[in-house]
Amino acid sequence: MAEQERWDAVDDYVTSALALADEALDAALGDSDAAGLPQIAVAANQGKLLQLLAEVQGARKILEIGTLGGYSTIWLARALPADGRLVTLEYQAAHAEVARRNLARAGLDGVTEVRVGAALDTLPLLEAEGAGPFDFVFIDADKVNNPHYLDWSLRLTRPGSVIVCDNVVRGGAVADADSADPAVVGTRALIDRVAAHPGLSATVVQTVGTKGYDGFLLARVTG
Ligand code: SAH
Ligand code: DHB
Ligand code: MG
Predict the structure, then answer these.
(1) What is the rounded CA–CA span in Å between residue 16 and residue 37?
(2) What does the alpha-carbon distance between residue 218 and residue 146 come to, in Å, rounded to a whole number?
(3) Of ligand 2's atoms, which has the minimum distance to the CA of residue 140?
(4) What percent of the chain has pLDDT over 90?
(5) CB 18: neighbour CB atoms within 10 A?
(6) 57-111, pLDDT tens digit by residue?
(7) Any bridge partners for residue 139, and if so which?
(8) CA dihedral (212, 214, 143, 89) positive or negative
(9) What is the pTM of this model?
């Protein structure tokens, strides 16, 4: 059995054995596919990891950068208390439309807000509004801007906040210091910035599964 097939089999097994998905989540993926969105949402077991991390954190305010069809948004918003709030930033108006419908069907339109625009334009607006501090940030948009998203996340969080960034391993390419891939360059710049920041405690964890070989950066703001 090829590696990818085995990874798929394990993801399918745990997703079924732990009953991770449900109708709202499956419908969110189905409608995202039907609308022609790329199939790059987090896997169900990864979405559940995000939910668990936000729950352990006791997050009341969550920021997501990169909405797509709102699949990861549903997982994260489910960690919120009834009076919690999640803001998710999306460049493509068509993606945001799909996400809003998916969030409404999941019963989460009351606690979530999808904002359209380039995140580097909408993040300063969030700061100007005093929307922070966010307890939990999930960075999952255009990887070339990852170092900037870290900077903005730091402006919009507080000591104790958690920052998670998706897709930082990229099939192992992250270890290539000579890579010309802008996503790798952006991700290595993110990791350098995390390393240089005295107020961040962080790690990178490699993952395999239906999303291939990739990984998460997990950071806690300490000061
Ligand atoms: N978090 C989603 C997947 C996000 S895919 C999930 O796991 O379900 C990345 C998304 O980031 C895409 O929808 C893409 O349109 C969006 N994106 C790309 N560049 C962006 C930018 N500059 N600002 C905000 N969103 C951006
Ligand atoms: C891509 C983006 C993602 O957020 C992801 O999880 C997988 C792939 C991409 O842009 O190809
Ligand atoms: Mg991703």
Answers:
(1) 24
(2) 13
(3) 4
(4) 99
(5) 11
(6) 999 999 999 999 999 999 999 999 999 999 999 999 999 999 999 999 999 999 9
(7) 65, 165
(8) positive
(9) 0.98
66: left (phi over 0), alpha (psi -120 to 50) or beta: left
Summarised one tens digit per residue, pLDDT across range 115-153 is 999 999 999 999 999 999 999 999 999 999 999 999 999
CB atoms near residue 5 (< 10 Å): 9
CA–centroid distance, residue 168 to ligand 1 (Å): 15
Domains located in the chain, CATH noted: 3-221 (3.40.50.150)
Adjacency order of strands within the sheet including 162-165: 112-116, 85-90, 61-65, 136-139, 162-165, 212-221, 200-209
Tokens of 205: 């964890």
Tokens of 174: 């992250």
Q: What tokens appear for 162 in the block?
A: 């958690």
| Closest C-alpha to ligand 1, atom 13 | 68
Nearest ligand by distance to the CA of 28: 1
Question: What is the C-alpha separation between 197 and 176, in angstroms, rounded?
Answer: 22
Give dist(CA 40, CA 112) in Å, integer. Answer: 21
Q: Residue 145 corresponds to which tokens in the numbers above?
A: 């801007």
167 Cβ inside 6 Å of ligand 2: yes
Question: Which residue type is seen at 137?
Answer: V
Coil/strand/helix, residue 176:
coil
* Residues 89, 63: Cα–Cα separation, whole Å: 8
On whether the CB atoms of residues 214 and 167 are closer than 8 A, the answer is: yes
